[in-house]
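Q: Structure tokens for this one, please.
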Amino acid sequence: MNVVMKKAGERAELVSALLALTVYLTGLTLQLTGNDGSAARALFMAAYAFGGFFTLREAVGALREGRFQVDFLMLVAAAGAAAIGRWEEGAVLLVLFSVGHALEEYAMGRARRSIEALGALAPRTALVRRPGGATAEVPVEELAVGDTVLVRPHTRVPADGFVAAGTGSVDQSAITGESVPADKTPVPDRAAALADPAGTDPGSRVYAGTVNGSGSLDVVVTRLAADNTLARVVRMVQDAEERTSPTQRFTDRFQKVFVPGVLALVAALLGYGALTGEPFTDSFYRAMAVLVAASPCALAIATPAAVLSAVGRAARGGVLVKGGAPLEEFGRLRTLAFDKTGTLTEGRPRLTEVETADGADREELLRTAVAAQRLSDHPLAQAVVRDAPSLLADPAGRAPEAAGLRAVIGRGVTAELDGEPVHIGSLSYADTLAGPPVPAALRDRTEELARTGRTTMLVRRGDRWLGTLGLMDAPRPEAAETVAALRALGVTRTVMLSGDDQRVADAVAGAVGMDEARGGLMPQDKVAEVARLRRTARTAMIGDGVNDAPAMAGATVGVAMGAAGSAVALETADIALMSDDLRRLPFITGLSRRASRIIRQNLWLSLGIVAVLVPATALGLGIGPAVLVHEGSTLVVVANALRLLRYRDTA
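A: Here is the predicted structure, written as tokens:
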């Protein structure tokens, strides 16, 4: 309803401005052709009515709130021109001002509509599966958590949830900014996924408003329509318009002082004319021209137009920016601090090295490790079970079965395979075992892997040492590319903050091209590190969720990754990357830098026009030319800001 009323208001103001222009041009034609002057004056008065209606309404509303705005200066100037019989001058002022203002509102409305269009992505109805397999079409507002909805091929997903049946790909670009559709598979345990939706694998989660591919999916609803990710994004982007930037706060304070100052200048010019004996009509006209020239319309719209356009463009690119303040601040940053696990890395260990002992067989090493570790639920054991089969010559071959697993907490495990004991664990655990010691060459290789940040597992079967496995939380494939892109955009210092051992932190930092790494940090240590960085430069903290919230709160700007799956991250971060894709960082960095440049361009243009027009009108430039330059500069400022809507993601 509000959207409809806004659109109606925009159209009414534009129609009124066009009517004002029409009657003014008609009156000007009558005046220039020497026809009845009273008819021309009547048409100029009509131009006053059409051109001044919306301006007067806004000015009265502002005055009731105790605020002086530029609209008030325009009305005073128009009234002054009428008072000395210069109806055509006052009419051209109000006509051009109203046309310019209507076009500004139309342009700003276009920026707002680009944001509101996000809300139209969610379908109005959903197909709910009923007992027995039948489906019923219901409004999305009636969906409840736990309902199962059928998403047919090439239709939009009606609600946030997870895939319970079916496979396919989903275009999530409207939410996460990902350019490639994401593959979706069913969750292994529906009850567990419903109990902890945030912990569901991203490969099974779907979001309202995204577009299903060629497969048919059964999706279990995890959020109500009013609380889904798309609805949150739309609300927060709309709220961001109300959060002013430092530059906007400056211009607001400037106007509060500047507008009364202009009125005082006008009074001084009138007084000067009276003292010098200048005819009152001449001094009054010049004072009104100065009043028009000094009105900072372009200054008032310069920052909001740029911020709104940039926030809307960011939202279309899968990045939620909560207002002008973080947008401007991020554009000035030169230091970025990153969490490691889940941000620069994938957040899960991978089997990265397989080293066999002299005389041992690689296939036997891997099959023995898988057989024993399959009985364990430790994350490192599960990584071996997941990754080792792909390294086998015959991944589909029958795997041996172990039994009698026993864990040695923090050190390793032991089990039995085909009547032989199997030991898997750290070097310190291996040194406690009876029997042959770890061969020197295998020990050296294991220690070398540990120095490069790997977690190592030595494997012994019976009295034979088979080899060692190296595991690591591997860097994201795009991490190094992202850090290089950020450096190209002007980021001069990148720091990784990690709770892992310093050797692990150094290994990951070196792999992705970070300047510095800090390891062994507790959450409070990360807060202290961010505070230390802020003492020398503005600093952003990029993390992957709630555990990084204290450090993000202490940074100049807090950035959360993967926020589409985390309501808390959406609420707490200043900037939220909706996907887990690090490449959104160069995008928002480039966009914020461009927005900052455009804001500066707009401010210099606005102030420059005022600085030129004020002395020019004081020296005799008329109201008409002053209005043309004045309103033209305002439209240039808005058009410059709207370029941000077309910003290209070159990341």
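A few notes: The mean pLDDT is 80. Residues 60 and 387 are 71 Å apart (CA to CA).
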